[in-house]
Amino acid sequence: MAREQGNKIIASNRRARHDYAIEDTLEAGVALTGTEVKSLRAGRASLADGFALVSDGEVWLHNVHIPEYTQGTWTNHLPKRTRKLLLHRGEIERLVRKTSEQGLTLVPLSLYFKDGKVKVELALARGKRTYDKRQDLAKRDAAREVERAWRRRR
């Protein structure tokens, strides 16, 4: 049986980059059931309200919606169940330090297959204020206008 190679993005959380200032990212494995993996292979998932918490030395992913597998039977999974993230002990300890001391939160940025295994890209992020969001939009609009002006001049 040939294994999948490369990355295939299942879902991404575009809203997270708007609502949070991303300070650091890391990759974690996700402990899933069989029907969850089959549902993800169909490309169905939502990270919209997702977040991760560290409790009892383990990292848990909350509010990530993976819909039930359509051909699943009574063994189907719950769509918004809490899922365990697979990280090394040192990474977990680093996350505990950063989230407790500096007021950072763990936000999932994307869910993807990497060499046939489901991975999640987690971000250590700080929440943005409303005026920060407006400033980012204004900068992006200004950069777009400058780019248009340059193209017109050429």
From TrEMBL:
Keywords: Cytoplasm, RNA-binding. Pfam families: SmpB. GO terms for molecular function: RNA binding. It comes from the Bacteria. GO terms for cellular component: cytosol. GO terms for biological process: trans-translation; trans-translation-dependent protein tagging. It is found in: Cytoplasm. Gene3D superfamilies: 2.40.280.10. Required for rescue of stalled ribosomes mediated by trans-translation. Binds to transfer-messenger RNA (tmRNA), required for stable association of tmRNA with ribosomes. tmRNA and SmpB together mimic tRNA shape, replacing the anticodon stem-loop with SmpB. tmRNA is encoded by the ssrA gene; the 2 termini fold to resemble tRNA(Ala) and it encodes a 'tag peptide', a short internal open reading frame. During trans-translation Ala-aminoacylated tmRNA acts like a tRNA, entering the A-site of stalled ribosomes, displacing the stalled mRNA. Belongs to the SmpB family. This is SsrA-binding protein.
